[in-house]
Structures are given as C-alpha cells and as structure tokens.
Amino acid sequence: MGNRDDLLAGAKRCLREKGYDRTSVRDIATAAGVSTAAIGYHYGSRETLLTQALFELLDEWGDSLGRALAPGSGDDAGTGFRRMWEGLIAQFRDHPDLWLATVELFLQAQRQPELSARLSDGVAEGWRGMAAILGSEPEDAVSDRSARTLGMMQTALMTGVMIQSLSDPAHAPTADEVLEGLGALGRLAEPAPPS
Prior knowledge:
Radius of gyration: 19 Å
Helix content: over 70%
Keywords: DNA-binding
Number of strands: 0
Number of helices: 9
Mean pLDDT: 88
Protein name: TetR/AcrR family transcriptional regulator
Organism: Streptomyces tubbatahanensis
InterPro entries: Homeodomain-like_sf, HTH-type_TetR-like_transc_reg, HTH_TetR, Tet_transcr_reg_TetR-rel_C_sf, TetR_C_31
Strand content: under 5%
Structural class: mainly alpha
Pfam families: TetR_C_31, TetR_N
C-alpha cells in the first residue's frame, strides 16, 4: 500500500476508535505510519480524508449488512422480517463504533454543505436498498414510490432503534419488542370501520 491507502486505512481505524471530532491529524498520521504533511498532500484536509474514510466504512458496512439481512431461501415474509430485525439489533450491539460514526456523519453534514448533498444521495440509496431487501427484489426494480415509503419508513425505524440501543445498551429494544410495537402501530394506521 502507498501513503494514500495507508492514510485511508488509518483514518478508518481512528474513526472507529475515536470518532470524527476526536480524531486529529496526528492520530491519523500515527495510525498510517506517515507524516502529517501527507494528509494535506494526498487529501487536502483532515475533513476530506475523514469524510472519505467514513463513506467507505459505510459502503463496506452496507454491503455486509445487505448480505446478512437478505431473507433466507426458505423464509416467509414474516420470518424474514423478524430475522432482519434480529440482525439489525445484533449489529447495533456488536458494532457501536460504526453506528456512532454514522451519527457523527449526520452532525458533520450540518456544518459542511458539500457533505450534506453527498449524504442526501446516500440516504436515498439506502432507502432503495432497504426496500429491495424487504421486497426481495433487485435494487433497480424498486420503484421510487417504494423507496420513498417502505424503504424510508424502515430506515427511520431502524435509525430510531439504533439511537435507543446506543444511548442505553443495557435496555436496548429486542426484536420481539420492535415487532410488537410495529404491529400496534399498524393497527393504529388502519382506517376505522364505517359506522
């Protein structure tokens, strides 16, 4: 690997260990085994490098999560959905560093307009991917409407459960609790029978 790749790998390691705001130029250079000047030469700034590293981590995570959450060949829709939630909650528990970095990314986007546009595209792509997983179909077959409804709602629910899991791991929601709550919300959303 060259200095550029070493810096990217070092930045990923620092993001997972220290987070975005607490990672310094020196931290990255030390993790990469290069001089601090190499960051400016290869990436222009600490922020540019950390942002690229974070998006790469999220891409890697998204690929592995998509494979892990894809329904099993014998699963019916309900079993597949339960298995998805069990997998998501396990991810929150097993990889809190990555999920905290995700939260930090949203905070950074509030201060960096160029990051906000990139993040917006990533969120829309995530909606489409989630709708594809839930619908057991290829992403290019997912309609815009399905991405903006099914994919968006699953992502919103997932994000909320993730925040609760990170803020109080000892009392994190279980898959059973999430599914029971979703059932209750579904009943509330049903129109009242005509009287």
